Amino acid sequence: LVIDVLKGVDPSRKCFRLVGGVLVERSVDVVLPGLVSNREKMKEFVASLKTSLENKGKEINQFRETHGIQIKGDEAKDDKEVESSSKGGERQANILANV
């Protein structure tokens, strides 16, 4: 958004940028290339984080399979899937009675 706005502005116009907690005054032609390079670096960083997240997920799943670790929520899902597939078209009715 800022890059798009600064592209339409006179390059000699002054602008302000926060660098390391200090507000500095620069011209648009100095600030704009820095903003563009920061955006590209952020895109690369996000892509590398996504790949490392995928790799870590695969690593965790492999560790779980190797050591036979099951998560309590996963067990319940598996049991429900087995019950629903074994019952087929049966319908279960529950009755509540006060005794």
Automatic annotation (TrEMBL):
GO molecular function: unfolded protein binding
GO cellular component assignments: prefoldin complex
Alphabetized CDD domains for the sequence: Prefoldin_2
Pfam family, one: Prefoldin_2
UniProt-listed Gene3D superfamilies: 1.10.287.370
Disordered as annotated region, ranges: 71-99
Entry superkingdom: Eukaryota
The UniProt record lists the keyword Heme: no
Keywords (A to Z) from UniProt: Chaperone
GO biological process: protein folding
InterPro entries in the cross-refs: PFD2 (IPR027235), PFD_beta-like (IPR002777), Prefoldin (IPR009053)
Composition bias type Basic and acidic residues, residue spans: 71-90
Family: Belongs to the prefoldin subunit beta family.
Role played: Binds specifically to cytosolic chaperonin (c-CPN) and transfers target proteins to it. Binds to nascent polypeptide chain and promotes folding in an environment in which there are many competing pathways for nonnative proteins.
Protein name per its UniProtKB record: Prefoldin subunit 2
